[in-house]
From TrEMBL:
InterPro entries: Lamp2-like_luminal, Lysosome-assoc_membr_glycop. Gene3D superfamilies: 2.40.160.110. It comes from Xenopus tropicalis (Western clawed frog). Residues 125-264 form the Lysosome-associated membrane glycoprotein 2-like luminal domain. This is Lysosomal-associated membrane protein 3.
Length: 314
């Protein structure tokens, strides 16, 4: 073989080897970036985020957040928040639960007690029902209207009626003594009842009435023995005498029906009428008329006898 043919053959073999090498490089070349997925992991596109994925975790699209996921946790779309989820945490909503937004308003109660209003003239007071119970058994039951007659520093007389709806009542009961206490507007009226072998009665009354810081009244009346009634009976009294509690205060009781001690079935006993309701005026008038008649008869007989004696002398 001549030199020209040998050289041609060598160049041809060299070209074939070059083509073969180039083909092998294109077929088996690896890309410059290598990603090794974690086992059993599904990875979805994450934009501008750094996400560390734990095994067996599914991450859904998260925007502008850095989220660290605990194992076996599914995170749903969260915007502009950083949330750390506790592993294997389940939140259960109670069925048929309604949550209502409430607004709480705090009111500060006024500690100022309204000033009682005094009237220039007396008026019939409202009748209230005041009771004291011991072990659900009546010890005192009093139906009555109450009015205070007050004389102030200028010697002006004014009146104050007790309003039953504004009264707090309480009391105590012992074997032979009972107490009824009525409180109102920083003031109080206290009744003390006593009992002996055959009867009971209103024995003491104490009143404190506060009008203003600079003007108030206090009075006490003892050993009254008012509304005296047989034990086991109730007493009814339309008109009672004024209870004088000092020089500047009197207590008026009207339309009274009262019983203390010895209740049966929590009911009033047989009713008696107080002596103050007896019409002594009519009795006095009747007595006066009888006396006049008797005197007239006596004068007539004396005059008739003298007349008869004069005829005999003639």
């Amino acid at each position: 073989m001549d030199r020209v043919s040998l050289l041609s053959t060598i160049l041809l073999l060299y070209g074939l080897l070059y083509i073969n090498d180039a083909y092998s490089e294109n077929t088996f070349a690896q890309p410059s970036n290598t990603t090794t997925p974690a086992p059993n992991t599904t990875t979805t596109h994450v934009t501008s985020n750094t996400t560390t994925l734990a095994p067996n975790t599914t991450t859904t699209h998260v925007t502008s957040n850095t989220t660290t996921l605990a194992p076996n946790t599914t995170t749903t779309h969260i915007t502009s928040n950083t949330t750390t989820l506790a592993p294997n945490t389940t939140t259960t909503l109670a069925p048929n639960t309604t949550t209502t937004h409430s607004v709480t308003t705090t009111k500060t109660a006024s500690t100022t007690t309204p000033t009682p209003t005094l009237e220039p003239k007396p008026s019939p007071p409202e009748t209230g029902n005041y009771t004291v119970k011991i072990k659900n058994e009546f010890c005192i039951e009093a139906l009555m209207g109450l009015e205070l007659e007050l004389t102030n520093s200028t010697k002006t007389q004014q009146y104050f009626n007790i309003v039953p709806s504004q009264i707090n009542s309480n009391g105590t009961c012992e074997k032979s003594k009972a107490n009824l206490n009525l409180t109102f507007a920083n003031s109080y009226i206290n009744f003390v009842f006593a009992q002996d072998d055959n009867s009971y009665y209103l024995d003491n009354v104490t009143v404190y009435f506060n009008l203003t810081r600079s003007e108030s009244w206090y009075g006490n009346a003892t050993n009254q023995k008012l509304l005296k009634t047989e034990n086991g009976y109730s007493v009814k009294c339309k008109n009672t005498p004024k209870i004088q509690l000092g020089d500047t205060m009197n207590l008026v009781m009207t339309n009274v029906k009262l019983q203390v001690f010895n209740f049966k079935d929590n009911s009033f006993g047989k009713e008696t009428t107080c002596k103050y309701d007896h019409n002594f005026g009519l009795m006095i008038a009747g007595i006066v008329i009888v006396v006049i008649v008797v005197l007239g008869v006596i004068i007539y007989f004396i005059w008739h006898k003298r007349k008869s004696s004069g005829y005999q002398r003639i």
